[in-house]
Amino acid sequence: MAGVIEMNGAGYMRLRQICLVAPHLEPVIGDIAGIMGLNVCYRDGNVAKYGLENALLPVDTILLEVVAPFQPGTAAGRFIEKTGGRGGYMAIFCCDDPDARREHARAMGVRVANVIDHAPYHGVQLHPRDCRAAFIEFNHTDGSDDILGPYPPAGPDWQKSIAKDVTRALTGVEMESPEPQVLAEHWGKIIGIPVSTGKSGEPELKLPNASFRFVKARAIS
């Protein structure tokens, strides 16, 4: 019931998708699916224009995506080179008004990297350098406020691929940073969520369906 009230309110923000990046799609996708007991619901041919291939797996109502470059000179390839092949590539949130989130980000000095407008889906991707970590995307699908409703990036029947025998839900994301408190506050301002303190003392952003925990890590050279 809480989820219904939240979605019908003046505004909402939920984690919709986590995108990981890998040098090659296989064996990563096969390993994730096998270990976590998940099913691939979709491979999106539209990402080929960015020099990428992908696969998506639903973890209950949150999508887990892996992208991999198949040609040189891609943003994902540069990300892999910088991080040594580690880390998440994009944190994707569904909300009531991506354009309002875009203007809020711009007012903070955060640039827009890409706008995807394929009705009924509308997404705004923010520049990862200004986000100081991964891409942040805000999106909305018209007529799809139901968390099990249509979500074009995951294909026409993504709900049919949900499996809960091994993995029931994606409940949290761990963000590593040399300055976890600073990054948490920055992401909190972009997303519009106050920073709280997690059970282990780390800064945390709590969404209705998942949380982001920020932990200390060395800088990537």
Radius of gyration, taken over Cα atoms and rounded to an integer in Å: 17 Å
Order of helices and strands: HEHEEHEHEEHEEHEEE
Spatially, the strands of the biggest sheet line up as 2-3-1-4-7-6-5
| First-last Cα distance | 46 Å
Number of strands: 11
Largest β-sheet summary: 7 strands, mixed
Number of helices: 6
Q: In percent, how helical is the residue content?
A: 10-25%
The low-confidence parts are: 1-10
Strand content: 25-35%
Structural class computed from helices and strand pairing: alpha/beta
Task: Calculate the mean pLDDT score and round it.
Answer: 90
Structural shape = globular
Protein traits:
single chain; 221 residues; four-stranded mixed sheet; 32% strand; alpha/beta; globular; seven-stranded mixed sheet
Structure characterization notes:
Helix content is 23%, strand content 32%. The protein has 6 helices and 11 strands. It has helices at residues 2-7, 28-36, 75-83, 98-107, 128-131, 180-191, and strands at 13-21, 52-59, 62-69, 88-95, 112-118, 121-126, 135-141, 172-177, 196-197, 203-206, 211-216. The protein starts with a helix and ends in a 5-residue tail after the last strand.
